[in-house]
User: What shape does this take?
Amino acid sequence: MVQMKIAVLRERKDGELRVAATPDTVKKYVSLGAEVCVETKAGKGASIADELYQAAGATIASEISTCTQEAHLILKVCAPEKEELMLLEDGALLVGMLDPHTQKELLAGYNLKKLSTFALELLPRISRAQAMDSLSSQSNLAGYRAVIEAVAALSKAVPMMMTAAGTVAPAKALVLGAGVAGLQAIATAKRLGAVVSAFDVRPVVKEQVESLGAKFIEVPAEESGEAAGGYAKEMSEEYKKKQAQLIHETLARQDMVISTALIPGKPAPVLITEDMVKGMKPGSVIVDLAAASGGNCPLTKLDKVVVKYGVTIIGYSNLPSRLAIDASQLYARNVYNFVSALLMPEVKWDDELVVGTLLTTAGEIVHKNFK
Assistant: This one.
């Protein structure tokens, strides 16, 4: 059997500091019999020196073409840039968070190179996939960082403080969307001393929200917002009207808002209208985690911080990259768990996790959602 060569490439997307493998996972790949080549400075953004990869058994390539030459498996965080794509070996395997919903134009490039591409964010959410679930590991960090960004922009203290000069009231925080990012945002805001409320279209998350010490705000309705796999789905127009009224009333009392609502494959739902922002307290903060999908607030500007009607609106699209050390450690473990179980020594083509993540192979688009 030919020894598998694995290439770990430096991320070229603006603002992306994460890396797809760490010295720890490189050592594991080598122990499985693989040859690992790491492009020089691939780990710089995550504070991992080339020498640490070398000590783990990898070779360091100063040129990307050297790294990709004869590589059977390419490990990435983000989808490759077009110039990277052309340097990949025909027929290679590519693993990463390939963002196929917004990067559909790359599918033709994958087919041109006859790549077998695996988009980890499409991983089915079943119990045996938990250790491979990069969407959850990165969303968890995003939820934490969102609160840190909000607190840094807030011109008041978060916890209640008793002083000789009087009492400082605790900050009020509202989290819209109680998925992985939202639940971590709730937990973080609560730990910092805020009074936390949360809203979600899925009544099933009420218990989780309350277990973290937050108040669950719900719209009285018979319809459920839960879709297959635990994701949220789009709601009826009647529900949306009730939801808008409830959120409008609640926003007026908040100091910071963390908005996380996403619908896979669709633009983010608008939950915070311009009129709602006008009604918020001056000095309050919104962190819109849905900025890359259009934003939960129409005033959000992608990767920018703007002030509208006295409210600071933060639209950073890649919060996990702002925690690149931990984000890389978690992501690299997710990737290793996926690769070692499903792609080595041979690809398990019939496995439901492979079928669920496989975008293209042998020059064809094979994923049912992108044909």
